[in-house]
Design a protein that fits this description.
The protein is an alpha/beta fold. Helices cover about 30% and strands about 25% of the residues. It has 2 domains: about 210 residues, Alanine racemase (TIM Barrel), CATH 3.20.20.10; about 120 residues, Lyase, Ornithine Decarboxylase, Chain A, domain 1 (Beta Barrel), CATH 2.40.37.10. Strand 10 and strand 11 form a beta hairpin. The longest helix has 15 residues. Its cofactor is pyridoxal 5'-phosphate.
Length: about 350
């Protein structure tokens, strides 16, 4: 069956972003590919990333993701960032997945062949052990020969005021000083762009920045390129006459005879419903507005005067005239939510 909507990820854009981020951080990358690689498709991005010389390993958020990536046998370490259930620890260790640890009980529950990354809570107050406890847990892991790495997460390194991030890093350094040498990682994309190379760090974990996006005040630090091009197929073309409305609730009424294309993507596929009456797309070589309410499965576009046929493709966002940031703005949300909200009906592909 033909796809209704296709998200194509550019290997060259991804590769360039990874090289630039690793160069600025001064260390290899532990690349987050959680949440379907930020919507780009885990099965698409994981092999591309694994071939990149600057990628040390791949980071995931759930045991299911960890098992999926481990089964690909890509030759790169897989690091789980959030705690598994006790019954999942043994199977994950058998797969070679690096396991997060943040308590004495978790440390004691690890099998002897496991490799652990100590999760340190330096102020995010989400996951991990506070510094004093982290030292004790880390020392116990080291005694058992299981401690491979330690990590923390910056809560606000993407903001102009870096004072809290600097305090978080000082706390993390205090933990590292009490432990034997290990793979330490702290910087997310905001951390890399804000700080560059940080002392004692072995790896960096850029998330959304890897896929081409930076906070506005950091946009010029590196030449990052959006990786994804999102397109939807024209499923039908029809005429709407003056005085007729389009879509639910009659929010848009034609002032004159209008040719309308129906695109095969809606809010069930991840396009923001809140973009209604604000969004536009690229179609037939021009930027054209959407018409009426964004629907669950479709959106309508004005194609009057254009040479467009059923089966043609409209570009909803790319690295050019319309970006994910534009769509996020129309939808009153953020790039993360637009990208990770792409549904399973969107086909993911790799491109040049």
């Amino acid at each position: 069956m033909l796809p209704r909507a296709v998200a194509t990820s550019s290997e060259s854009a991804l590769s360039g972003n990874l090289s630039a981020l690793s160069g600025r951080a001064g260390v290899p990358l532990l690349l987050p590919i959680k949440a379907e690689a930020y919507g780009h498709g885990l099965g698409v991005i994981a092999p591309l990333a694994a071939r990149h010389a600057d990628v040390w390993g791949l980071a995931v958020a759930t045991p299911q993701e960890a098992a999926q990536v481990a089964a690909m046998r890509l030759g790169k370490p897989v690091v789980l960032l959030t705690p598994p259930a006790p019954e999942e620890v043994g199977p994950l260790a058998d797969l070679g997945v690096r396991i997060p640890v943040a308590s004495p009980a978790e440390a004691e529950a690890l099998p002897d062949h496991a490799r652990a990354h100590l999760k340190v809570d330096t102020g995010m107050n989400r996951l991990g052990a506070r510094p004093e406890e982290a030292v004790r847990v880390g020392q116990r892991l080291a005694e058992r020969g299981l401690l491979e790495g330690a990590y923390t997460h910056f809560a606000s390194a993407d903001e102009p005021d870096l004072s809290f991030s600097e305090e978080q890093f000082r706390r993390f350094q205090g933990v590292l000083a009490a432990l034997p040498p290990l793979l330490a990682h702290a910087s997310n994309g905001g951390g890399i762009l804000s700080f560059g190379k940080l002392p004692q760090m072995s790896l960096a974990r850029p998330g959304l920045a890897s896929y081409g996006f930076a906070p506005p005040h950091l946009a010029g630090v590196l030449p990052l390129r959006p990786v994804m091009t999102m397109q939807a197929r024209v499923n039908q073309i029809h005429t709407v006459y003056a005085g007729e409305s389009v879509s639910y609730n009659g929010l848009w009424t034609a002032q004159k005879e209008t040719q309308v294309a129906v695109l095969g993507m809606g809010y069930a596929d991840g396009y923001p419903r809140n973009a209604t009456l604000k969004a536009s797309v690229l179609i037939g070589g021009e930027r054209r507005p959407t018409l009426g309410r964004i629907c669950m499965d479709q959106m309508m576009v004005d194609i009057s005067g254009l040479e467009v046929q059923v089966g043609d493709w409209a570009t909803l966002w790319d690295a050019g005239q319309i970006t994910v940031s534009d769509v996020a703005g129309w939808g009153d949300t953020i790039e993360y939510e637009v990208l990770t909200g792409l549904g399973p009906r969107v086909e993911r592909r790799a491109g040049a």
